[in-house]
Amino acid sequence: MHDVIVIGGGNAALCAALTASERGASVLLLEAAPKEWRGGNSQHTRNLRCMHDAPQDVLVDAYSEEEYWQDLLKVTAGKTNEHLARLVIRSTATCRDWMRQHGVNFQPPLSGALHVARTNAFFMGGGKALVNAYFRSAQNLGVEIRYNTKIVNLEIENNTFKAAIAEDGTRFKGASCVLAAGGFESNIDWLKQAWGQNENGEWPAENFVIRGTRFNQGNLLKFMMDHGADIIGDPSQSHCVAVDARAPLYDGGICTRIDCVSLGVVVNKNAERFYDEGEDFWPKRYAIWGRLVAKQPNQIAYSIIDSKSVGRFMPPVFEGTKANTIEELAEKLNLDVSQLKKTIHEYNQACVAGEFNHTVLDNCHTKNLSPAKTHWAVPLNQPPFYAYALRPGITFTYLGLKVEDDAAVRFNDSPSPNLFVAGEMMAGNVLGQGYTAGVGMSIGTTFGRIAGQNAAKAALMQGV
Q1: Angle, CA 222 vertex, CA 429 and CA 239 arms, to 5°
Q2: Which residues are 187's β-sheet partners?
Q3: CB neighbours (10 Å) of residue 463?
Q4: Which residues does UniProt call coiled coil (predicted)?
Q5: How many other CB atoms sit within 10 Å of the CB of residue 257?
Q6: CA distance 286 to 134
Q7: How many CA atoms lie within 13 A of 462 on its CB side?
Q8: What is the pLDDT of residues 343-373, one digit of tens each?
Q9: Banded model confidence at residue 4, pLDDT cuts 50, 70, 90
Q10: What are the residue ranges of CATH 3.90.700.10 in the chain?
């Protein structure tokens, strides 16, 4: 028997395991994936959104608690718990020293991501390096780690955790437990159920790409829902971005994201625009585009730029479709030629000349065009032209377990004495909808440490 059992192998789970071990608890970490795929979605991450009142090593200028909160409030449209959100925000001001103690290194943002140099601290080597550092530290602290161990059931009596049951029937007994096994984003059947059918009789989720791990099936979340745990969140809401339509079904990660949306126009299969591409800075808006594409016919769209934009965004892993004319581009994309020409012509005519600057909310906008393009609107008139086909890319889902600032799982508003939750399984408390870059890691790090601390405390109190 262990003091603390942690179920999951991503950032939140590792933060919980490390913190519980630091508090003197014996810890068993159970990861569903094999060792080579360990780390959940965290292996695909790049950075952590950080509050800071003055420049800090890789972070420039300042990013106050209030500005962070306002950014989060805007993208969630108010669907967030302010108390928990501010708890996360304040935690990010000090957590990096703890992360460094466990082997995580930081670096300045690479070219193409300089617009978040003030708000986000980038991991040297990316999320994979962070995950590996945490696993090394966990082993050094004596945390026992078991891979290929999918937990499908929990023994819970009077809201108190007793044991975790693996798919093969193995029973893992613990004095306390932290659930950090991710959402249900790789469960296509559940996504279909959540999204339902559209007016055309399509099942949008059939055309989704899963950006992250294939192992987040949501089995523990489903178990807890069936067991009566308090739930929060809309099952159709998620971190959903526009990715290259050629991306693999699972584990495409960051390199399949298309980042040129704000530099050109986006059209659907009918060759029509459907949203303001320049509404706000890309890190604050990239996570709405997957959902926007999901609501288009056949869940497909095309991001179109001209040669002026080449070099102004982080290039994806796949090359775009290239053409010397809009007509040729339409033919290659199998779009209606006359309609695409009309769309681009109307956009070009509506562009108001200004001073283009992609690092600020510039004065390049459209006039008398619907939908408008609010910033960075310059005519597409310099061939060659490039297009990237887009699909909705699901990173993680927001349906989860309701918590307060103790990270305890709740049943009818009553906290469990020894069962806690962190990461994607509770992120919906802070993220009711929308996303801003790096906040998922902020939530996972904050609540992983809280859950680990309180799980250790609950376990060690039983031994007193």
Answers
A1: 45
A2: none
A3: 8
A4: 323-350
A5: 24
A6: 28
A7: 18
A8: 999 999 999 999 999 989 999 999 999 999 9
A9: very high
A10: 239-393
Query: Which of 115, 390, 24 has the alpha carbon at shortest distance from 243?
Result: 390
How does DSSP assign 128-177, residue by residue? Answer: HHHHHHHHHHHHHTT-EEE-S--EEEEEEETTEEEEEEETTS-EEEEEEE
What letter would DSSP give residue 428? G
Mean residue pLDDT across the chain: 95
Residues in the chain, how many?
Answer: 464
CATH architecture of the domain 2-183+218-236+398-462 equals 3-Layer(bba) Sandwich (3.50)
Q: Position of tokens 């932290």? A: 178
Q: Where in the chain is the domain with CATH 3.50.50.60?
A: 2-183+218-236+398-462
- The architecture CATH gives domain 239-393: Alpha-Beta Complex (3.90)
- Could you give the CA distance from residue 450 to residue 464 in angstroms, rounded to a whole number? 21
- 93 contact partners, CB below 8 Å, separation of at least 6: 50, 51, 52, 53, 65
For the record, the structure tokens of 118 come out as 């003030």
125-181 pLDDT, tens per residue? 999 999 999 999 999 999 999 999 999 999 999 999 999 999 999 999 999 999 999
DSSP 8-state class, residue 63? B
Q: Which 3 state secondary structure label does DSSP give 205?
A: helix
- Categorize the per-residue pLDDT at 112 as very low, low, confident or very high, splitting at 50, 70 and 90: low
| Amino acid at the residue 357 | N
pTM for the structure as a whole: 0.92
Report the 10 Å Cβ neighbour count for 54: 8
